[in-house]
Design brief:
With 166 residues, the protein is mainly beta. It is built from two helices and ten strands. Strand 2 and strand 3 form a beta hairpin.
C-alpha cells in the first residue's frame, strides 16, 4: 500500500510458494525511505519448510524477535489465514483463527504507522535461513484476500478475525 496504517487487525488468506530459497511474506513496514525509523511486523513462510511460519517484528531497526510456529497441513498445501492484532500495549499473531504468539514487552512493539506489503522473493545467498534456491518449475504465492480493520471498527466480513474476537 501507499497509505500507512496504525493499530488494528491485519489479515490475509494466502497459499505460499514451496521451493527452497523462496519466501512468501505478509508484513507491514515503514523505514528510512519514508523518513521514519524501521518498524516492521512479519509473517514469512520459507519454502524450505512450509509446515511453519516465521513471525518477527522490528522496532527502530532492531529485530531478533523471531518465533517459528506450526501451520497445520502446511502453508503451501492449502489457503491459510494469517492475522495480527496490533495494539499499543500488545501484539498478537494468529494462524487460522488461533492465537499462536503474543508480545507484551513495549520495547518489542512497533509504534509507527506502516504500509501493508505482500511479497514473494527468492535468493541463493541466504541458504542458512531460506534453504538453497531450487528451481524446477514456476511457483506462485496465491492471495485470496487482504484486509485491515482499524481498532474499534466493526467487522467487515464474516470470515474476519475481528468478528471472532468480539
Amino acid at each position: 500500500t501507499r497509505n500507512r496504517f496504525g493499530y488494528g487487525t491485519y489479515e490475509v488468506r494466502m497459499k505460499s510458494a514451496d521451493p527452497p530459497g523462496l519466501n512468501s511474506a505478509f508484513f507491514t513496514y515503514i523505514g528510512p525511505t519514508d523518513r521514519k525509523p524501521h518498524d516492521e511486523i512479519d509473517f514469512e513462510v520459507l519454502g524450505k519448510d512450509t509446515s511453519k511460519v516465521q513471525l518477527n517484528q522490528y522496532v527502530a531497526g532492531k529485530g531478533g524477535n523471531e518465533a517459528l510456529v506450526d501451520v497445520q497441513g502446511g502453508a503451501s498445501a492449502a489457503f491459510n489465514d494469517f492475522a495480527f492484532v496490533w495494539e499499543k500495549d500488545r501484539l498478537r499473531y494468529f494462524v487460522n483463527g488461533q492465537m499462536v504468539h503474543e508480545v507484551t514487552d513495549p520495547a518489542k512493539i512497533p509504534t509507527n504507522a506502516q504500509k501493508i506489503l505482500l511479497s514473494l522473493w527468492g535468493t541463493d545467498t541466504l541458504k542458512d535461513w531460506m534453504g538453497a534456491f531450487s528451481y524446477s518449475q514456476p511457483s506462485k504465492m496465491q492471495v485470496d484476500r487482504l484486509a485491515f480493520t482499524a481498532s474499534g471498527d466493526a467487522c467487515q466480513f464474516e470470515q474476519s478475525l475481528v468478528c471472532k474476537l468480539k
